[in-house]
């Protein structure tokens, strides 16, 4: 009797992704999470008994320009544990839009780990040796990458246009302001918070230092921004108070583009030179008048200048920080003089 050929059982992982950009642009309904899931589940069911769906991995709201997505990484770990040996996506762009990393997975990582990859609408099947669509996968990846680059450029251009017009696009509003319910890109005063800002500036004008202002706020149980907005236990620090006193937004000026992302692929933040900032006057109602603000800035400069320079460096300088306020812990040496007898 001839030996029975062992059937290959494919343990299928369905991967689904819909980026925030796709959703915001009103991407075709077929791209939605629900429709991707229905389509791919039915696709696996029609493949036959040797295909077993083991899990569905979903990353909603994650860009395709990098692979640091929670469910994608969970899928990779499951493959390494032997739980899956086949990955199916609706199309190649759902796997990723970075052509270099996408190519690394399709051309190297999947083959090295004996993983079969199928992109349904693109007709790609890495285990089908005579499939001509496989040869076009690199070109599709480049087009997907170009799409992301073009989309990023359009979004960035629109963002910069709004910043140049003085519209607020900075995300979290400063203490004392909130987004206008009728125009999310316009700041209006939140009186409850504004009183705290005025108190801080009035104390600074009266000659109180950062530490004295901090102690006053703590002693009088005046809540921080996060306590007010998110009911999160946080503490007033000298740094927080100094940031408030330095914030020109309180004079009715909107300053934006101080920082930006390195590129559409690299999400790290870089600090922009001052000449690239967008400064627009009179964009919203001021909490602090310009004269008071300028006076406080001069006083802050004087306080910084008056600080004693450190004469000695000690072991662990710059390495010890306070758990509660985050400031560096200093070291002082007290020399005791012997009394004359």
What are the main properties of this structure?
Hect, E3 ligase catalytic domain fold, single chain, 15% strand, alpha/beta, Rossmann fold, 5-stranded mixed sheet, two-stranded antiparallel sheet, 11 strands, 341 residues, disordered N terminus, 2 domains
The gist of it:
The chain is of the alpha/beta class.
Please provide a written account of the structure.
With 341 residues, the protein is of the alpha/beta class. The protein has two domains: 10-148, 3-Layer(aba) Sandwich (Rossmann fold); 165-306, Hect, E3 ligase catalytic domain fold (Alpha-Beta Complex). Helix content is 39%, strand content 15%. It contains eleven helices and eleven strands. It has helices at 20-24, 33-45, 70-80, 92-95, 99-112, 137-164, 191-205, 210-219, 225-230, 238-246, 290-306; strands at 10-18, 51-60, 86-89, 116-119, 124-125, 177-180, 183-189, 254-256, 259-261, 269-271, 278-280. The strands form four sheets. It has a five-stranded mixed beta sheet with strand order 2-1-3-4-5, sandwiched between helices. Helix 5 (99-112) runs antiparallel to helix 6 and helix 8 packs across helix 10. The longest helix is centred in the middle third of the chain and has 28 residues, at 137-164.
């Amino acid at each position: 009797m001839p030996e029975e050929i062992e059937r290959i059982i494919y343990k299928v992982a369905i991967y689904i992704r819909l980026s925030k950009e796709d959703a915001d642009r009103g991407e075709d309904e077929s791209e939605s999470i629900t429709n991707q899931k229905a389509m791919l589940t039915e696709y696996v069911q029609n493949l036959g008994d040797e295909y077993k769906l083991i899990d569905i991995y979903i990353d909603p709201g994650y860009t395709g320009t990098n692979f640091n997505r929670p469910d994608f990484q969970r899928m990779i770990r499951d493959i390494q544990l032997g739980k899956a040996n086949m990955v199916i996506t609706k199309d190649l762009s759902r796997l990723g839009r970075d052509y270099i990393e996408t190519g690394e997975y399709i051309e190297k990582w999947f083959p090295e780990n004996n993983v079969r990859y199928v992109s349904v609408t693109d007709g790609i099947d890495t285990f089908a040796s005579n499939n001509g669509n496989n040869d076009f996968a690199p070109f599709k990846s480049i087009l997907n990458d170009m799409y992301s680059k073009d989309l990023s450029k359009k979004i960035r251009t629109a963002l910069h246009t709004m910043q140049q017009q003085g519209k607020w696009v900075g995300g979290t509003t400063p203490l004392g302001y909130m987004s206008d319910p009728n125009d999310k890109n316009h700041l209006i005063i939140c009186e409850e918070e504004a009183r705290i800002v005025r108190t801080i500036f009035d104390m600074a004008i009266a000659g109180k230092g950062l530490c004295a202002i901090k102690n006053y706020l703590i002693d009088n149980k005046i809540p921080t921004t996060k306590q007010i907005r998110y009911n999160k236990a946080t503490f007033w620090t000298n740094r927080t108070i100094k940031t408030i006193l330095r914030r020109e937004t309180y004079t009715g000026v909107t300053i934006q583009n101080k920082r930006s992302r390195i590129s559409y692929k690299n999400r790290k933040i870089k600090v922009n030179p001052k000449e690239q900032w967008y400064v627009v006057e009179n964009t919203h109602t001021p909490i602090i008048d310009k004269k008071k603000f300028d006076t406080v800035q001069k006083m802050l400069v004087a306080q910084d200048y008056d600080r004693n320079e450190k004469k000695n460096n000690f072991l662990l300088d710059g390495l010890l920080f306070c758990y509660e306020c985050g400031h560096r812990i200093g070291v002082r040496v007290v020399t005791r003089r012997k009394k004359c007898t």
